[in-house]
Design brief:
Layout (H helix, E strand, L loop, with lengths): L4 H4 L4 E5 L4 E5 L7 E5 L8 E9 L6 E7 L7 E5 L4 E6 L2 E6 L8 E8 L4 E6 L2 E7 L11 E4 L18 E9 L5 H9 L15 E5 L3 E4 L6
Antiparallel strand pairs: 1-14, 2-13, 2-15, 3-12, 3-14, 4-9, 4-13, 5-6, 5-12, 6-7, 7-8, 9-10, 10-11
Length: 222
């Protein structure tokens, strides 16, 4: 008899064209629940901005945003640590920011990087961190996979239950440039004002697997 992984673990697959005014909820720690984001095709990146809203009361390390390629499973990883530090992985290079601890309140988080000067900045609710310098002259390779809810140890898989996200994520967008400060402040004040050109919460196809709840989210200031 042919082994069916999805039947064995009762994994359900759902497809959404955009998640406008919807939240993705991960109710429990699992190694089988995640959201796949089918980003637009892009060349190797020399700059980006990733923005999302998230809330979690978990007290363990987890991925907020994971992008893996065949050469690096942490090609681009936004990693929340239990001690409240927020890390950006660009391959083997890790840049950390000491920020307020994640809690039950939805907060708007952005990470931006540009290769020319290696400038990396974190934003929380429109407030800017200090600017760190790292991965100057680097690139983020194309051809990988974007995942919410899990940290990838291979492209699209090999998840660790102890690193899974539990909580709520919404308003996920990604651009192939470092947004201007006024743009990030504007986006943080409302929802769905500007969609990313790589990942657009309003139009990108999202695939959910496992125990993932999609809930209407009508509390944005439009």
């Amino acid at each position: 008899q042919r082994y069916n992984f999805k039947q064995r673990f009762n994994i359900q697959t759902s497809y959404f064209t955009g998640l406008m005014q919807k939240s993705v909820i991960f109710p429990t720690k699992t190694a089988t629940s995640f959201v796949k984001l089918n980003a637009a095709d892009f060349s190797d990146l020399t700059a980006f901005t990733v923005c999302l809203r998230a809330a979690s009361e978990e007290n363990h390390d987890y991925a907020l945003f994971s992008y893996a390629t065949k050469k690096s499973h942490n090609e681009l990883l936004i990693w929340q640590k239990s001690n409240a530090q927020l890390d950006l992985y660009l391959g083997s290079v890790i840049t950390g920011f000491s920020l307020p601890k994640m809690d039950a309140w939805l907060r708007h988080i952005c990470m931006s990087w540009e290769s020319q000067n290696g400038e990396i900045t974190a934003w929380v609710n429109g407030r800017r961190s200090l600017t760190n310098v790292s991965s100057k002259g680097g690139v983020v390779k194309n051809g990988g996979q974007f995942i919410l809810g899990q940290e990838q140890d291979t492209v699209g898989g090999k998840f660790d239950i102890e690193q899974s996200f539990v909580g709520e994520i919404t308003d996920v967008n990604m651009w192939d440039r470092a947004l201007k400060p006024y743009e990030i402040k504007f986006i943080s004040q409302g929802c769905y004002n500007i969609g990313g050109n790589l990942i657009d919460c309003g139009s990108t196809i999202f695939t959910t697997e496992g125990n993932v709840i999609i809930k209407d989210n009508n509390d944005c200031t439009l």
